């Protein structure tokens, strides 16, 4: 049985190689779009990004490049060659979407009414900072997420989220905008130019931090493993029976959640042992609590704290995995704190197909890649192939 066609099958994307566009191009390609990566002769600079397979540097051995360029075709174009630029214009004339990250690459010759152009740049194409240099770190710091990430001890510096988060945030926004533009073109027959600012996209992810400042002129403070807040909140970390830390998540707020937590205590025979069970019953009987109540309602604060305490109390009697599985089964948003290597073998992630084998026939080996960053059973996602070698599909250029 052949693999299912992706939901974007039939869509052709031409991606002008850039660090900023590569995640967007990967998502579109893994969803079925024919994505053609256009690199300079000798390959794009990201082929030199570490780490390398087996710690051996080489333009075909960058794990960074491998990850961000799955399912793509690859061609090389010398911008100084009139003949090769003509071939690129012919390729772009067959494209539905043109992905641009390098603003120095003149895309005017590719313009046509039905073409969708998606620019993904650090600060957008307009405004006083367009063209300013940036890195993943500076975008996260300037955009706001770093301010909210770190520890209760503010003597320690903020913490940058790992894993190229600015690149991913900008890429996800670019893909969403691309899909909307495709739908719009399907109705109107006209393309458009989508301008994605990674800096602005990063700011959107700051949750309450930006709104607190814009509305109330208040500044949130970072906290260990929980949302940054204007006021300190109770820790959400708790040790399991063996002392390993887990995350108790958000305490119950709805009637259903209070009933789930009370049922858990009773089933474990701990309801009488936990000294604040009556607060949980109050939370159930009053119809739950809302986060907005916590600032002014003393009773709501006590109920909320009792919920957190009950989760910590239960956690101390169980392993982190059992706590996670049973808490989730009862409708409570609790979590395991897993090391990266544990994620790839976790039964939950394995069952969802997150560890994805990708064959590298050139090396005679198969490597395990991270799978889809979402679960959409009716929109098949798959890695169709490894990242292309330099100029591997130049025959497309004629």
Provide structural commentary:
- The protein is an alpha/beta fold.
- It contains 13 helices and 12 strands.
- The mean pLDDT is 94.
Radius of gyration: 25 Å
Q: Ends: how far apart?
A: 33 Å
Broad shape: elongated
H/E topology pattern: EHEHEHEEHHEHHEEEEHHHHHHEE
List keywords for this structure.
single chain, 398 residues, alpha/beta, six-stranded parallel β-sheet, two-stranded antiparallel ribbon, elongated
Summary of the model, kept short:
This protein has helices spanning 22-30, 63-68, 82-92, 136-143, 165-188, 198-204, 208-216, 255-267, 277-285, 298-315, 320-329, 340-343, 347-351, and strands at residues 12-16, 34-39, 73-76, 97-100, 116-121, 193-197, 221-223, 226-229, 237-239, 245-247, 355-360, 365-370.
Record the SSE blueprint:
Layout: E1 12-16, H1 22-30, E2 34-39, H2 63-68, E3 73-76, H3 82-92, E4 97-100, E5 116-121, H4 136-143, H5 165-188, E6 193-197, H6 198-204, H7 208-216, E7 221-223, E8 226-229, E9 237-239, E10 245-247, H8 255-267, H9 277-285, H10 298-315, H11 320-329, H12 340-343, H13 347-351, E11 355-360, E12 365-370
Parallel strand pairs: 1-2, 1-4, 2-3, 4-5, 5-6
Antiparallel strand pairs: 7-8, 9-10, 11-12
Helix pairs in contact: 1-5, 4-6, 5-6, 8-9, 9-10
